Amino acid sequence: MSSKPVFTTTHGSLYQGDCMELLASLDDNSVDVIFADPPFNLNKDYGKGIRDDLAEGEYLDWCAEWIKESCRVLAPGGAFWLYNLPRWNIELGHKLNENGMLFRHWVAIDIKMLLPIPGRLYPSHYSLLYYTKGKPKTFERPRLPIQVCRHCGGDVKDYGGHRNKMNPAGVNVSDVWTDIPPVRHRKTKSRGANQLSEKLLERVISISSVEGDLVLDPFGGSGTTFAVAERMHRKWLGTELGDVEPIIARLEGREFYVAAPNRGDAAKGNTSKAPSGERVRPSPS
């Protein structure tokens, strides 16, 4: 990784390279919020020479490395959000526990983007772990507007007959998020691989930070964390192992055309093979 950022904005800096290099360069207790969306080890295509098909043990060992470093740089009271498949977050939550982090929530992100799997229940959510380094120094519980029928405009629920006592700002957000849309349309998608909704990052940042806090994303991906942090007046820092041009174009407000892979809205079905004998860390998702 270059010692200089490849792009800077009013609030943040983007580096290109392995996340461990950036994490190793940071001081202890120096970051307020970490949002990590690592590769899911699903053999997706993130570019030439970048593998996403590690053996299970190797993938978990790699995750243990960057999780340990992330916990080191997180400030007391800081928040650690980890987005992954439930299959992996079961294991990765244990890694966070081993590093002394405090479990807050397992958030289920309801996104039905997958096909049914024979012999199993229909997988319909991703896992978002929310941990803090001790008691959270910032926690703002957001509210959602009271749900109304799109046809008649009436309330969908009667709330046990206590509708008149409801907070006018809406209902408290639970640990099941059903309102996070997948990013599918070409006008909002800035790369071929999967991309997170800005609404997801807006909620994460709103819950666990205030203006001026430093948000770190060690897997830049499409740059969603950076774009939202910039707009919400948070300082931010991050790195991306693969192509950073889509992130830079997004932060500069330029259009960046993405050719659809025609294999699902998260580039499912793409494969990546590194040259024989070459060991390369996975790329961010």
Describe what this molecule looks like in 3D:
It contains six helices and eleven strands. The protein has helices at residues 19-24, 56-73, 86-98, 198-208, 224-231, 245-251, and strands at residues 7-8, 12-16, 31-36, 74-84, 102-110, 125-132, 143-144, 171-172, 176-177, 214-217, 235-240. The radius of gyration is 19 Å and the shape is globular.
Report on the biggest sheet. 9 strands, mixed
Low-confidence stretches: 185-192, 260-285
Strand content: 15-25%
- The run of helices and strands is EEHEHEHEEEEEHEHEH
Query: What's the pLDDT, averaged over the residues?
Result: 85
The CATH class = Alpha Beta
Total helix count? 6
Radius of gyration: 19 Å
The overall number of domains is 1
CATH architecture: 3-Layer(aba) Sandwich
- Biggest sheet strand line-up: 1-2-11-10-3-4-6-5-9
Could you give me the name of the CATH homologous superfamily? Vaccinia Virus protein VP39
Strands, count: 11
Backbone structural class: alpha/beta
- Could you tell me how far the N terminus lies from the C terminus, measured between alpha carbons in angstroms? 18 Å
- Briefly note the CATH topology name: Rossmann fold
